[in-house]
Each structure stands twice: as C-alpha cells, then as structure tokens.
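Backbone description:
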Amino acid sequence: MKQLSSRVTAFALLGALALTTTACGKKNGGDAASGEEANSFSYTATWGADEPQAKIFQAAIADFTAQTGVKVDVKWMGRNGTDGLPTEMAAGRGPDLFDTATDNIAKFRAQNLLAPLDDVLTAKIPGDGKTVGEVLSPAAKQASSDEKGLALIPHTVISTGVWFDATRHPDLAARPPRTWDEFLAYLDKAKKAGRTPLGQDGTVPFYNAYWFYSALVRAHGAGSLYALGTDARAWDRPEVLAAARQVQKLAEGGYFQKDFTATKFPAAQDRFAAGGYDLNINGTWLTSEVKSKLPADARINSFQYPAGGKNSVEAGTLGWGVNAKGRHPEAAKRFLAFFQQKKYTARIGTEALNIPPVPTSPRPAT
C-alpha cells in the first residue's frame, strides 16, 4: 500500500465552464437550486476496497446513510485509478468528494477545484457536542491549509522518520543517534558486524529524496526546502551542499544494500521488516504496510534524522477535498463532519496504523 501516488514528494513541499441544469433543478457547483438538501453525493477514492482505510470509510458511509438518508456513490479506484481526476473535475464531470494530500493542494488550487471548508470546521460533530475545528489538532489544520485557507479535511497525519525494530535493536530504542557523527558511528558498527545498515527501495524517487530533504530541513528548518523551488539562488547556499554531501556519504559508504538503486518497491522495506536491514527511512505509514511481514515480537519504532540544527519535524496530511465544481458539495461536507466521531477517527490509529489528526484518538502501537 503506497497511500497516495502523489504523496508528499521531496519537491512538492515545494475559460469558465457554463453551468448546466437538470430536470430536477440542480446545477454544477452547488446543491439543489431550490434550496432542498441533496440526498446523495459522489466520492472517488484512491484506496483499494480491501485496504484498512477503505473499510473504515465504508463503515462510516454506511452509518451516515442509515442516519441521514444521504446515499454515497463511492468508487474505490486504487492508486492509479484517479490519474485523470483533475481533468474530469475541471470539466464538471468529477465527484463531489475526493482523496487528496498536502502535496496536492497547489495543483488543485491552481485549477480552482477546492471548495472552501471553513463551514466544515464550524460544523457540530454528531453526538459529540464539539465542532470539527475544535477536535482537529492545530498542526493538522495548518498542514491542510495554504494561503487561501483550509484546503482539505484531514483523516491522517503523515511525517518521515528512520525506522527500526526495537526488539532487535534495543540500543537504538534506549538512545537513538542524535548527531550526524553518532549516526555514522552506528552505521559503521552495523557494517563491521556484517549487517546491512540501510534498506532502500531505490526505484521510488521520493524515498531516495527523503535523505536529502531530511538532512536539509532538520538542520535549517521550515522553508529551506521550499526555497529550492522558488529561488534558483537557494541552490548555492552552503547548507544545500552540506546536505548533499551527507547523502553522498551514505551512498558511497556501503551502508545500503547492493544495487539499492535498482531495488523495486516494496522489496527493501519488506526485507527490513523481516530483519534483513537495520534501518529504513520512510513515512509514518510504514508500520501498516509491513505489518504482515513483521515477526510476532517486533516493535517498530523510529527516530528523526539526526542532522541537528533546527531539528524541524515535517508534517503533512492525507484527507478529503470537496470539489468546487461538484453537484452536491454540501452533502459531502455533512459526511466530513460526521466522520469526526471518535469511533471512526480512532480506527485510523488502531486499524489503519496511521496517526489520526485528532489528539484524543489512539496512536498506532509500536
């Protein structure tokens, strides 16, 4: 499972259509023209029907329909089934609700495809007494927004770390490396003991880029990576060269498996899960992806890339966008408020093994 095909990549952190009416008096870009509440909406998902997230969402959809009478036409398309979604939405043929992520905000915003969501933040959560904005963490809301406001309603918080099995490496659990020199010392020790320190699915470009942007952002803070996409002069900054040299040291130091640049996902992370490699740099979704490959006593944990400096921690989100050109956006927004009930958000942590954006919801066990 690779969450979303365009999920937080390294440099991503970097004529009007005429409205057509139907016989029912409804039009693109809003719910019933008569003011009557829509009794359905459409949702195109980038999840496969058998994935934990899809099962959680489907349970919530079934409850939503039973309690409100609003039907949801959902299509579980999987990762590559939504490549043409922006084009369909721009032409007025897209769904009301769709999956998206932090790194997609600019793309959808540029085409005016994101409906405003401030009204979702003020909506009451059924049976809770609180609003959506009150239960979502400030960090999750910030990561789901741009200069124009909230762009998506998150269901998952994502970040990047260096992962290990605490059962097999209690030394890392007790004291993970805190500096670059300590990190290199660990890698050299593992290599000397005959182990492969780092497993890398080298055919996934943004997995390779994690090393560079972790080195840069951890050391120099927010905006240091973004500057590379907005100011060509930023590439000449000394901190960029320093980060690149760290990556060069890792690549040339014999720390990765042989021929790692040709390793096809998920071979490296699966072997890491089985104990073949000490470490794997990856997103917070890793535990859910390798769960079936882990030994029964495994305790997957992580530490932040030990670059020092600002010690900034990357944060992004996965969630839902509401199509500004959809037929029934208000009905879709009702579901987004409905989903924030604890019985659904908790399952993101306990079943999908991801981090919910609601601080009171359980986190995945490690």
Remarks:
- The two ends are 19 Å apart (CA to CA).
- The longest helix spans residues 52-68.
- The domain at 40-158+316-350 is CATH 3.40.190.10 (D-Maltodextrin-Binding Protein; domain 2).
- The chain is about 35% helix and 15% strand.
